[in-house]
């Protein structure tokens, strides 16, 4: 028996009401963030032309290509599960010959074991294989073919260009480009219609996360698949998120600069203003002082950023605070914007 995400969330909701849990109400989701609905089985197949198909379950996305002889699958999200096979059968009864891993995270390839039958070749970047060997998981079989930089997968009449530009979201995460259909798939970077998932989508390298928007725009694509939420993206979505991330970047830097300025009535972010009450309440507690400092800068960044983006990108009031916290810390330790903790002239 299949259990849908909707039924799980409904059960959780009922449990929450039963225990009188406090529920936060966020701003409504803009219509521009909402994609087509899934079917009664919990998935949606959308033809992108040239034998390419988006597979979405309302929360996660994957992609498959049909050749005259077989199917090439890209990712296998566990939320879609056995519906992956049902979705493919709704288009063709040809067997799956190849499975491409976008990266190693279980939420995107945790159903790979359902597809990894005899004769299916799994392809991934060598760093994806490395990560999978560190934390072995039978649900994510090791790849059969790995590569270091780029790899061209040409199967019958379908071509996929697999490019690695660095650890943007995770080591080994790939830019997956189908030139014939002008499709670009890059997981956990751009979230069409939405702000990114928490902490800049759990970016392992903030500088690369920011730069990746430029790298995306170097590709000639019509469709962008980000792996999450429920609609396709395009170049406009990439440009919109690039602007949002730039605002987070700028507002985090502004907060740090203000913290290094003398205290006055118009500058509540001066480090002297921030630390005085905290140190009085927590003498000799360095961590209490520092978290109070970072939290104050983070709140400033989040308030300014959210004020601009609320209603334009979904969940701006949900995750902007986490993005600002990540950006404040990255500005300090990655970029060297140390403010009052740097060498004072």
TrEMBL record:
Protein name, entry field: Metallo-beta-lactamase domain-containing protein
Range of residues in the leader sequence: 1-18
Gene3D superfamilies cross-referenced by the UniProt entry: Ribonuclease Z/Hydroxyacylglutathione hydrolase-like
Sequence ranges assigned to domain Metallo-beta-lactamase in this UniProt record: 59-228
Keyword list, A-Z: Signal
Signal in keyword set: yes
Domain of life of the native organism: Eukaryota
SMART domains attached to this UniProt entry: Lactamase_B
């Amino acid at each position: 028996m299949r259990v849908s995400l909707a039924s799980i969330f409904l059960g959780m909701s009922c449990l929450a009401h039963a225990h009188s849990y406090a529920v936060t109400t966020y701003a409504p989701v803009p219509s521009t963030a909402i994609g087509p609905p899934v079917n009664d089985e919990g998935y949606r197949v959308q033809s992108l032309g040239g034998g390419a198909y988006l597979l979405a379950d309302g929360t996660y996305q994957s992609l498959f290509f049909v050749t005259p002889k077989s199917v090439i699958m890209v990712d296998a999200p566990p939320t879609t599960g056995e519906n992956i096979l049902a979705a493919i059968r709704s288009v063709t009864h040809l067997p799956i010959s190849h499975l491409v891993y976008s990266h190693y995270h279980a939420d995107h390839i945790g159903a790979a074991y359902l597809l990894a039958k005899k004769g299916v070749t799994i392809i991934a970047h060598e760093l994806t294989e490395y990560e999978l060997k560190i934390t072995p998981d039978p649900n994510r079989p090791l790849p059969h073919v790995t590569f270091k930089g780029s790899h061209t997968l040409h199967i019958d009449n379908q071509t996929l260009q697999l490019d690695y530009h660095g650890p943007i979201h995770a080591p080994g995460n790939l830019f997956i480009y189908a030139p014939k259909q002008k499709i670009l798939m890059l997981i956990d970077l751009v979230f069409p219609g939405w702000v990114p998932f928490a902490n800049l989508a759990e970016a392992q390298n903030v500088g690369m996360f920011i730069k990746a928007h430029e790298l995306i725009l170097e590709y000639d694509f019509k469709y962008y698949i980000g792996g999450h939420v429920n609609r396709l993206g395009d170049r406009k979505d990439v440009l919109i998120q690039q602007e949002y991330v730039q605002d987070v970047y700028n507002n985090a830097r502004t907060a740090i600069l203000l913290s290094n300025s003398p205290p006055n009535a118009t500058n509540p972010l001066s480090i002297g203003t921030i630390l005085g009450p905290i140190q009085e309440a927590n003498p000799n507690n360095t961590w209490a002082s520092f978290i109070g400092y970072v939290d104050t800068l983070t709140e400033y960044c989040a308030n300014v950023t959210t004020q601009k983006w609320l209603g334009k990108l979904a969940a701006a009031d949900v995750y902007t605070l986490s993005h600002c916290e990540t950006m404040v810390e990255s500005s300090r330790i990655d970029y060297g914007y140390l403010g009052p903790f740097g060498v004072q002239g």
